[in-house]
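Crash report, auto-generated. Payload:
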Amino acid sequence: MKQTQLIPLLLLGLLLSAGCKTKNYGITRLPPPGTGGQSGTPMIADADKAPPAEAVKGTDDGTGFTPLNARGSHSGWKENNEFFDAYTVHFEYDSSILKSSELANIQAVAGQLKSNPSIAIKIRGHCDERGTEEYNRSLGERRALALREELIRLGIDPARLDTVSFGEDKPVAVSHNEIAWKQNRRGEFVELTPP
Amino acid sequence: MRTSLFPKLCLAALVAFNASAADQSEIVVRRDIDVLGSTKPIPVSISGFSGEVAQALQFDLYVQGFSFTSPESAQFLISGSNNGTVQGRLVDANSKATAFSKAYSGGSIRRQAHAFSDDIVQAVMHKKGIAQTRIAFKVDTGANSEIYIADFDGHNPQGVTKDNTIVAAPCWAPGRMMLYYTSYKLGNPDIFQHDLTSGQRRPIATYSGLNTSAAVSPDGRRIAMILSKSGSPDVYVCDADGGNLKRLTSTREDESSPCWSPDGQWICFATKLKERRALCKVSASGGEIQRIPTTGVLNPTEPEWSPDGKWIVFTSMMGGFEICTVPAQGGQVIELVPGEDPSWAPNSRTVVYARRQGGSRVLAVLDVMTKQTKDISRVAGSNSQPSWAK
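Recovered output after restart:
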């Protein structure tokens, strides 16, 4: 169980044991960490309806993903590209799955975040050129979000983790071969320090 | 199956009788059924024009399904002159009747040529021509990209943005001089609405994470878009000013490139279902996701629904990129030409798209019926992500 879930559940347990009535939603809906101001959308999809012949249910009801922080929560913070330069994570073609070879880098980033409690990070997702542009903009974001979820799983407060996708717009290598493409399919971590 | 000989003999007698009678009557030639991707172009001859007018006329007609030949082989004869202004005439080669004869004035000589080609298309195809329509697109100069608008053939380009950052994914508001696009001006991909008449723009979606792929509903009242603020890139819809945000998908996969059906009821988009990339649609008021089958190709993306509702044009990514069409309800795909990111003209038969050339992209227009395609004029840099004003 995630550490971040533990405290609200304990509170819920206290409420229940105190005899207060609570509605049973089936899954406890957690407040988004640390921020307000965004229109809340439930993470749970609507209750089952009989699907028409061609219909396909969404493959997931949305649980397992942590909503992003409100915009501007790190407004004015200073960006430092070099701090996490060595920990850039790479991806397979057309994939946002984290490879086992990359986990050491992510753990190192988590370690740095734990040692430096005042900093936050912006996770940049990038793609190679072998997708169409808007497809790549979404895929780059999926990569950044996958890294964010892993850092949350490793115990980092979601409020410290922002994402941005650049699709295929900012390659590090401009040749048109797998050597270049491999380098471009990446997630980068940018240190954010408070003003 | 065995059939008796007697009916056949009777039929033969009838045919023999009719054949001799038919010698004196008109022969009616049955028209070929127009099949998307393999329709024969309409052959015309053009004479009397020079320079820019001749070039514009040929370009306009080629990408609306005409071909050029001698007067003897043509179905229509186009003639005229351009000494100062354009004068033009269209004659039916079979009946010798003059469909129209006109003199054009005002505007540039190029504009007159476009007006003439529109009149030709109207007379022959009984449809509105596209020669006086416009496109918007992205120009990437390496460090940055900006939005431009131009005539449909790339002429008369005008810069729209000067954000000195990444600006992408333009989309016209139907029937209006207004664009929506994605700009990183505020340090994040955000969707802006830009009034081209006043030059004013306002932010529409500036949530955390990704705000991109704006698509305007046919009535101009709503915008579909991709937002990732929930923790995954999903399809959302909101009012044209950004209010009343509603989430339409909540899958584990990355949705992209929403587009509207012309009746405003459905939003089609690219996603992944059961490990396979697919086109899907969802009701614009919310509901179950439905798959649109694209039989014959893999990895469909960047769809756009034709204005007449019949077809969805999209890009298939199978190593390279291919412009494809599928009937709007799904089915067998027709592959057309190498290219990506297509957008329909108002005529539901011409499409503007990008194709890769060296390390760059150039724009081209394609007649999906005949597969005739031609590059358009380009702005220095990589030109991509075109949107045709409708």
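Post-recovery validation: The longest strand of chain B covers residues 266-273.
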